[in-house]
Amino acid sequence: MKKQILTLILSVLPTFAFAAGGAHIDSAPINISDMESVKRGAKHFVNYCFSCHEASYMRFNRIARDTGMTDAEVREELIFTTNEKGVPTKVGSLMKVAMTEEYARNAFGGPVPDLTLTARSRGADWIYTYLRSFYIDPYRPTGMNNLLFPDVSMPHVLSSLQGMQKAVYKTETRQGVEVEYVDHLELAQAGSMTAEEYDAFVADLVNFMVYLGEPVQNERRSLGIKVLIFLAIFFVLAYMLKKEYWKDVH
Question: What pLDDT is stored for residue 83 in this prediction?
Fold first, then answer.
């Protein structure tokens, strides 16, 4: 229990440090009703995230059902893994990876987190900003650092798309002490996408991760509206019935 509490505290410390530094978290242009965006995000996820991060509470065929993909499309566009015998992963399988915890500790210094519920725990805006905040840092093992999550172990896997950013520092005097901090990031080496294209790419990826956290939210919202309409009609009928019953009393 103590280990779980410590893990939770350590996981939120980077967010507190970011806020304390006065940095800005951008608003993610999320639209969970846009299933085409969710479908694109699913493809981005399996191409760039799924080799390390699993989404072990989600099945491929659930994504297919919600986004309108056929089993053949799922096999062609989302499934690139096999079992130890070389048999392709089944469409009904959970989205798990072959990376072991031991390998992850040796490669990254710790276990790689499951991303199924990350959008619910961190928030869509946090993920959107995080994926756009990597910058060159020669003192880090990966050569990259992150403005939102300082000293993160994860390499910038999207650098070929976004390009390489560098930090522009600024110095201020605070309580008589000169403090140097990152003022903003600017592009040092172009990637294969423009800034607008990369932002759209990340938005689709984050949209899919929001969907991962609660696949039924569209149905829940639709049902909620129907329930509210029913309660409104029922209230009117109940009020009229109450007046009918009590008219002789009043």
Answer: 73
Write down the pLDDT at residue 18. Answer: 41
Instruction: Note the pLDDT of residue 23.
Output: 58
**149: phi then psi, degrees, rounded to nearest 5:** -125, 80
Pairing mode of beta strands 55-59, 94-95: antiparallel
Q: Is the domain of 104 the same as that of 156?
A: yes
For the chain, counts of helices (H) and of strands (E): 10, 6
Where residue 105 falls (left for φ over 0; alpha for ψ -120 to 50; beta otherwise) is alpha
Phi/psi region, residue 6 (left: phi>0; alpha: psi -120 to 50; beta: rest), is alpha
DSSP letter assigned to residue 180: E
State the pLDDT at residue 250.
59
Query: Quick one: pLDDT at residue 17?
Result: 40
pLDDT, position 179: 83
Nearest to 81 by CA among 41, 48, 46: 46
Choose among 80, 32, 45, 25: nearest CA to 202. Answer: 45
Q: Are 150 and 238 within one domain?
A: no
The whole domain housing 67 covers 2-215
Look at the chain and report how many structural domains it folds into: 2
Residues of the chain falling short of pLDDT 50: 1-22
Residue 86 token pair: 């070389």
**Residue 147 belongs to a domain with what CATH number?**
1.10.760.10
